[in-house]
Amino acid sequence: MLGEKEQLEQEILSLISKTGQPVGCGAISAVLNSRGISISEATVGRVLRDFDHSGYTEKAGYQGRILSARGSDRLTELANREKSLQWGAEFASALQGHTKEQLLEVLIARRAIEGELAALAALNGNGAEKEQLQSTLEKQRSIMENGGGAAQADVNFHAAIAQMAGNKILAMSIELIRQDTQLSPVLEYIRKHVHSLVYIDHQNIFQAIHSGMPDAAKEAMVAHINNLIQDVETYWERRNNK
Questions:
Q1: What is the pLDDT of residues 211-236, one digit of tens each?
Q2: Domain end marker among 48, 72, 89
Q3: Residue-wise pLDDT tens digits, 10-49
Q4: DSSP H/E element including 213
Q5: Which of 16, 50, 114, 184 has the smallest C-beta neighbourhood within 10 Å, fewest atoms?
Q6: d(CA 210, CA 121)
Q7: In this model, does residue 180 exceed pLDDT 70?
Q8: 7 alpha-carbon distance from chain centroid
Q9: Beta bridge partners of residue 190, listed in sequence order
Q10: Cα separation, 78 vs 16, whole angstroms
Q11: Cα torsion for 45, 46, 51, 54, to the nearest 10°?
């Protein structure tokens, strides 16, 4: 969660942005108080003067302030910071009970099984299943481009491959391994922290499956899991060096 000062900054900048026209101290104070944020008109005035000085707002005569391009950038920066802090809190909660060694054990088991599943999916997947896999991949890409959490999309992508493979024993095995619902959010946080591009891995896997190339599909899946293993190693190395 943002600090008190940054929260107020975000509230006021957001209000000015959404209004779409010049807004003054009295109107801002009234809206914030209606939201349960106790703040006087004089205090809002001081905040707005600070905004003017920082270049976040511009005066529009006696009508009030409008948001500047720099103010819009600041609002985006605060939103991203809030999201980052929220991710950190969620990760700390999700990580409870997950050590580096446990994550690596799971990934090594996944590598062995999901490589085979990808190869079988390339052999056995039908046209409709391949279209569905592509749709899942595109949804993941869209979520990631908009800064959202794509953990569930990641689960759906791998589950679709397991379904396409047509091997019930392998599918049940990977479902058992992935039954810990917190693993995907943990791995997603780690990937973001080390700036890993998981979508590219998934794209490579999809292309091989779509082309009906089992060896290439297995190789792409194994490379993907190896990248996840490296991400976990890199994350813990950086964390220990802090």
A1: 999 999 999 999 999 999 998 898 88
A2: 89
A3: 999 999 998 888 999 999 999 999 988 899 999 999 999 9
A4: none
A5: 50
A6: 9
A7: no
A8: 21
A9: none
A10: 15
A11: 150
- Rounded CA gap, 154 and 184, in Å? 7
CA 195 to chain centroid, in Å, comes to 11
Assess whether pLDDT exceeds 70 at residue 242: no
60 and 129 fall within a common domain: no
Are residue 111 and residue 174 in the same domain, yes or no?
yes
What's the DSSP call for residue 23? Answer: B
- For residues 24 and 19, give the distance between their C-alpha atoms in angstroms, rounded to a whole number: 11
| Residue 42's CATH number | 1.10.10.10
The answer to whether residue 74 scores a pLDDT higher than 80 is: yes
Average pLDDT in the chain: 85
Angle at 224 between CA 118 and CA 235, to 5 degrees: 150
**37, 57, 89 — which closes off a domain?**
89
Q: In degrees to the nearest 10, what's the CA dihedral of 190, 195, 196, 199?
A: 110
Model pTM score? 0.59
Q: 178-184: long-range contacts (C-beta < 8 A, 24 or more apart)?
A: 178/110, 180/106, 182/94, 182/95, 182/98, 183/98, 183/103, 183/106, 184/151, 184/152, 184/154, 184/155
Query: Whole domain around residue 47: which residue ranges?
Result: 4-89
How, if at all, do strands 57-59 and 65-67 pair?
antiparallel
Q: What CATH number did the domain enclosing 146 receive?
A: 1.20.120.530
Q: pLDDT tens, 137-156? A: 988 888 777 766 667 788 88
Task: Count how many domains the chain has.
Answer: 2
